[in-house]
Recover the amino acids of this structure.
């Protein structure tokens, strides 16, 4: 990781002395406050995560409400964006027959992003990958068919 990316990740890292529950219910001593990222930082982290992909690798980035929405626009890089709302409904262009990257800010167990990928498939989308800013899954999320791309990987602490 280059120094600029390291500085960005360091700035959004919140460390606690005692374990606490993160917003998604995991217990940790480190939290990544991705909502603090600027548009330029989001674009840089999106390039780190999916910049290696060809432009035609996907048609739509689907962001998970709420924290994944901002990152999905950066990942889209001019492509279409849809939002999977908290109520399980999609907002945005139709997914049927489209190649989709499912986007969230932080991935832990993969339950949330995996569930979203299943919703995309049920709506006719073709999930070609998953993307996040911080991957805390220790390699347990993603597969050869549906890889997880991230800007930063770390263990659950």
């Amino acid at each position: 990781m280059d120094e600029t990316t390291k500085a960005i990740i360091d700035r959004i890292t919140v460390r606690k002395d005692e374990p606490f529950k993160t917003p998604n219910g995991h217990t940790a001593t480190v939290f990544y406050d991705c909502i603090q990222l600027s548009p330029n930082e989001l674009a840089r982290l999106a390039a780190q995560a999916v910049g290696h992909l060809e432009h035609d690798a996907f048609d739509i980035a689907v962001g998970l409400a709420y924290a994944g929405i901002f990152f999905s626009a950066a990942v889209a890089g001019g492509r279409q964006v849809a939002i999977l709302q908290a109520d399980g409904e999609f907002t945005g262009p139709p997914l049927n027959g489209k190649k989709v990257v499912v986007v969230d800010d932080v991935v832990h167990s993969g339950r949330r992003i995996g569930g979203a990928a299943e919703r995309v498939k049920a709506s006719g989308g073709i999930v070609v990958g998953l993307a996040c800013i911080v991957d805390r899954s220790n390699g347990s999320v993603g597969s050869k068919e549906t890889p997880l791309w991230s800007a930063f990987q770390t263990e659950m602490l």
